[in-house]
Amino acid sequence: MPAPRSRAAEVFGRRVREARIALGMSQEDIAGLADMHVTNYGRVERGEANSELHTIVRLATALNVDPGELMKGLYGADMLPDRSRAYSVADFLAAQREHDKR
């Protein structure tokens, strides 16, 4: 079963694709520069991949952009697949206070 897609992966992938197109490069070109298989690169652009830090930095380097620009604004639980646990310290502390009241 495939992992659930996240809004963050979709936004990240769109930014990677836009940067590649702006450079006039093919997926194969950028995948090669980023030392990735083109199939995996395509998954990134389609928002199907959950890229690790090293992949993000390799892609940003190949695209000649700051990794922070690719990641900008990808914050908050609405960017992640649904889960049953809290995502922030504030959420955790609120749940802990609620638990302590019982």
Query: Unreliable stretches, pLDDT < 50, 5 or more residues?
Result: none
The overall average pLDDT, rounded, is 89
Instruction: Supply the number of helical segments.
Output: 6
Order of helices and strands: HHHHHH
Task: Please summarize the sheet with the most strands.
Answer: none
First CA to last CA: what distance? 39 Å
Report the structural category: mainly alpha
Described by the principal axes of the CA atoms, the overall outline is elongated
Work out the oligomeric state of the chains in this entry.
Answer: single chain
Strand tally is: 0
Q: Which percent range describes the beta-strand content?
A: under 5%
Which radius of gyration do the C-alpha atoms yield?
A: 17 Å
* Helix proportion range: 55-70%
Describe the structure.
The protein has 6 helices and no strands. By secondary structure, the chain is an all-alpha fold. α2 crosses α3. The longest helix has 17 residues, at 7-23. The model has no long low-confidence stretch (mean pLDDT 89).
TL;DR of this structure?
The chain is mainly α.
Properties at a glance:
6 helices; 102 residues; single chain; elongated
List the helices and strands and how they pair.
Layout: H1 7-23, H2 27-33, H3 38-45, H4 53-63, H5 67-71, H6 89-101
